[in-house]
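User: Some background: our group keeps a shared notebook of sequences we're curious about, and every so often someone picks one and asks for a predicted structure to add to the entry. Today it's my turn. The entry only has the sequence so far, pasted here. Could you supply the structure so I can complete it?
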Amino acid sequence: MQCCRHDHYALTPEGDRGFEVDATRVRFGRGLLDETGQAARGLGMSRVALIIDPVVARLEPAETLRRALREAGLDAVEYADVEIEPSDASFRRAADFAREGRFDGYVSLGGGSTIDTAKAANLYATHPAGDFMDYVNAPIGGGKPIPGALRPHIACPTTSGTGSECTGIAIFDYVARNVKTGIVGRPLKPSMGIVDPNVADSLPGEVVACSGFDVLSHALESFTALPYTQRKRPASGAERPLSQGANPYSDIACLEALRILGEFMVPAVMDADAHAREKMMFAATLAGIGFGNAGNHAPHGMSYSVSGLIREYRAPGYPQDEAMVPHGMSVIVNAPSAFRFTAEACPERHLEAARALGAKPGAATLEEAGEVLAARIVELMRATRMPNGLAALGYTPADAAPLAAGAFPQRRLLSNAPRDIALEQLEELYRGAMAYW
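Assistant: Of course. Here's the predicted structure to add to the notebook entry:
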């Protein structure tokens, strides 16, 4: 299946006739963490589960948040057993904490891992499952729909990356199969996001780079996803998927996020420029709105086995006690190869995205669209000292087959790509991602 080259949203005979806009309420601005207590009170919270990143728990933003909750008269119980890359085991522990605590609301402070952990804790405490895997995406899990609303949740991101405050997605490592998967459903979306750029001023440059490339790929994947008009029409509006494909609402958020990234990513990473980091926080929220309504595709689908099969690599700027590749890094090492492949389906979109990101393609033809976009991504990777593809993470061409086998079950993501991706093509994409310069 390929996107229409002339009218991107031309309706196909069995395609969806409409799209759904589902946006999280967001407060954005420096110093707004101190409004969290009153916001929680306004959402009806009295006994609060404070899910917090264990590193952030020792820093000033955590104390600001604790004070805000205390001054609002809230009973807050802190939980910091959050992993940098959550696993099914860490989600289960958080769920146990939430069930035992009988909370009427949740506040999360940290990156996407922390916010996702709070989503999972809220889900399993509010709607207990017979088996943990019941809610997990099929075919890895049961794919059971979330039966109803969850407790209110205020998400306070501390990295300029995941946009998790705007999405109904919670991602984790399924250790038994060495693969990432997740839980998806509109009820998982936080009730509110409070985005305070002050929290990003002291982040290590490597963390800003990894989270920033997650934003970049969120925006690129959503903008180039299969159009909603080419996704099979649901039997009812209630069955329309959260990842509904590219749509005009998401396009607006994604293009602006790309423009901001092209201008501000390098100074945010390399110069620790506070203004640039504030812009990156806003881009992350925009891209979260974009992919929260459109969905990601190949680079994210490929990233999950890259993370799951890592052997020795330890990312600079992150804890060194075990092998780990940060999520944004595991995504971006695949992106140039993936977008070279998907460009054939909708080259105008790939060129437009490249221009928004700061590329100057001149008289480039549509046939060159994938290369133009890939080249701009590689330029930004080099400028921010990202690894040179999968080989720099310790993979070899012989790993292409197991990487592809690990990623192929990610049908929710791969089926959102504008071109069909067979297992053999997925292997080729991994081979093409081994090195870029």
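Suggested note for the entry: Residues 301 and 413 are 5 Å apart (CA to CA). The radius of gyration is 20 Å.
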